[in-house]
Amino acid sequence: MFFLFGPELAAEAGGRSYAKRLIRAMSDPSFKVRLQAAILAGKKGITEAAGPLRRLLRDEKHVVRAAAAYSLARLGRQDARADIVRLMGEGDVLLVKAAEKALSLLDRKLGDPVYLVALEPVRPKSRRAKGVIGELLRIVDGKFRQNRAIVVSAGEHRVLSAERLRRHLSHRRLEGMLVKVKLSRFELGPRDGNTVVDGNVELLVMTLVNKRLEFSAGGEANAWIEGEDASESETGELVKSVLEGAAQAAVEQVLQYLAHREP
Q1: Which residues touch 181 (CB under 8 Å, ≥6 apart)?
Q2: 169 vs 33, 36, 57, 74, 97, CA distance in Å?
Q3: Domains annotated on the chain, with CATH
Q4: pLDDT per residue over 144-178, tens digit each?
Q5: What's the predicted TM-score (pTM) here?
Q6: Strand order in the sheet with 194-207
């Protein structure tokens, strides 16, 4: 059995050998050893342990999973949010509290945001628009993440009931907002000897818990290139330019609204 608190290991604390032994301990048959390893990885700032810690989020022992969640937060692993959120969907009190504590710490590491913003695409009607809605969603997501007042949802609203979500937001001291992303118009094709792309983006801002519409924003953009025989890469650049421009205009309106919104 691997004992974490032995004098030999304590003397190695902070070194590469210590980190390797700590990571090995996360696979130990004893859950007590796995638990100690998970706690120490966060406490000692062992960044190399992020992968093994994420695997411990699926450990058979809830106490180990809870410790792994908080240590990932201590390491500042914003990319682990979705995995931590999934713990709340299991309904176990220990896991819910641990996940909330971890998410709150990750929030603070972002600079104490004000809003939890969930993004949902509105399914387009045209086949051509369906092919680019995923890219539009990624662009909008990236623009919201650049704002220090916002933390983008990792799926909290999908795993929690309305009442539990309300309590969860209160615990994290966040206002919950749902932004529906709609590509209301998207046209691509030849026009007057050029290849032209036109796009209109709508963002519908609602309260996250009761889905009450509060604000709508829109942006439009167009781009073109000479000739009607544009290559696939050239067309792709036009599409990206239009989505970027239209999304930027709409997101700026939403950010202005949120900055002046009264709770």
Answers
A1: 119, 120, 121, 122, 133, 136, 137, 140, 201, 202, 203
A2: 34, 30, 22, 20, 13
A3: 7-110 (1.25.10.10), 115-260 (3.30.160.150)
A4: 999 999 999 999 999 999 999 999 999 999 999 99
A5: 0.88
A6: 150-152, 115-121, 175-191, 194-207, 213-226
